[in-house]
Design brief:
Low-confidence stretches: 1-7, 10-14
Strand order of the largest sheet: 3-2-1-4-5
Oligomer: single chain
Number of domains: 3
Shape: globular
Number of helices: 14
Structural class: alpha/beta
Order of helices and strands: EEEHEHEHHHHHHHHHHHH
Mean pLDDT: 90
Length: 365
């Protein structure tokens, strides 16, 4: 696609890096190239395709490429590095100059990325994408989630239709719903609901196949998942998702995992004001959901006694305060994430009463 590219800059030993700000869109992306001294060198549009982007990147080898994290950013960042660019992936939550710009446009967004990239990269709170292999394996788990969501939607549809005609669907788990409902289906509703129930049965089969694939991935490619599954509530899906989401345990230090997964409270303190705020909900939504589900099991009726359960119950208290119970679930989910990271990084075997033994608290025989 046409652009107004000027001559490539000649670097000197004191020159700041030339920066390319690339505002990604689904079909056409805008770019702005800026020299270290603030001089604009090129601006234009490029198709969001491998061939076109490779051609653009090849003309600016050794420069810095700044993009925002999004749907296209993983493969484009890898393409940029393959073309010998220094790639910076900005955290959209930290680029308020773009999201709150009164004269926002794709062209101005590209220029803003270039200016921020040449001034101070740390202001962009750059993120690191997971590896290509991890992204491919995580897609299996995401596809399973999509199948589960589709099944839930169809089951709710069947229940709604039955209810509107004075009937009720079977009280059972989702995996048994279609088999039981098709036996009790009223003859008048067979034309409308029998095809839906057949689809649900097919989805059940595919979900079981996904479960087997995920278990195989964990055993063959990520053996550390077997170690992590020693924690109550952490099964093949939670352990594999955690490993694939973090990808590299050495990138994090201790409690940084909680912040990475959005399980720490926001902070907005000023002067004497320091309000208690909700969690940031940054990072991977699905991994955060899985950790909360695991925490819910640990704190639930059948959760075994352990340090995590005792910690959560102290926060929840003995009363029926729903907010306290919710805080306890989030706190245990955060602590569980930190524990999973610690076991992964050190290779230690899970000890359910590690803290209790250090404190001298009573533990089961």
């Amino acid at each position: 696609m046409a652009d107004r590219t000027l001559t490539h800059p000649k670097f000197t030993t004191v020159q700041l890096p030339t920066t390319i700000g690339l505002d990604l869109s689904d079909r056409v992306s805008h770019y702005h190239v800026m020299r270290g001294d603030g001089t604009s060198l090129a601006t234009g549009k490029v198709a969001t395709e491998r061939r076109d982007l490779t051609k653009l990147f090849a003309g600016w080898k050794g420069c810095r490429l700044v993009i925002e994290a999004g749907g296209h950013s993983p493969w484009i960042s890898r393409l940029g590095m393959a073309c010998e660019l220094e790639v910076v992936v900005a955290n959209p939550r930290r680029v308020a100059l773009i999201s709150k710009n009164d004269k926002k446009s794709d062209r101005s967004d590209a220029e803003t990325l270039a200016r921020l990239g040449k001034s101070n990269v740390e202001l962009l709170a750059p993120i690191t994408h997971r590896s290509k292999e991890a992204q491919e394996h995580l897609s299996v788990q995401r596809s399973r989630n999509a199948a589960v969501s589709a099944r839930t939607m169809l089951i709710n549809h069947v229940r709604g239709v039955l209810k509107s005609h004075g009937y009720r669907g079977p009280s059972c788990g989702a995996e048994r719903f279609a088999t039981l409902a098709i036996k009790e289906l009223p003859a008048a509703l067979e034309p409308a609901l029998e095809p839906i129930l057949r689809v649900i049965q097919r989805i059940d089969t595919e979900i079981k196949a996904f479960d087997k694939k995920l278990e195989h991935l964990g055993r063959e490619h990520y053996p550390v998942t077997q170690l992590l599954q020693g924690i109550p509530g952490v099964g093949p899906i939670v352990s594999l998702s955690f490993v694939l989401t973090l990808d590299d345990p050495t990138r994090f230090k201790g409690r940084d995992v909680g912040a990475y997964l959005g399980l720490v409270p926001r902070q907005r303190s000023s002067g004497v004001s320091d309000p208690q705020l909700h969690i940031t909900k940054a990072g991977d939504h699905e991994m955060r959901r899985l950790l909360v589900i695991a925490a819910n099991y640990i704190l639930g009726r059948f959760g075994p006694d352990c340090d995590l359960r005792r910690y959560g119950l102290r926060i929840a208290g003995n009363g029926g305060d729903k907010k306290a119970k919710k805080r306890a679930r989030v706190a245990v989910a955060r602590k569980l994430g930190v524990l999973l990271h610690h076991l992964w990084k050190t290779g230690e075997v899970y000890d359910p009463f590690h803290l209790a033994n250090k404190r001298g608290d009573s533990v089961p025989a």
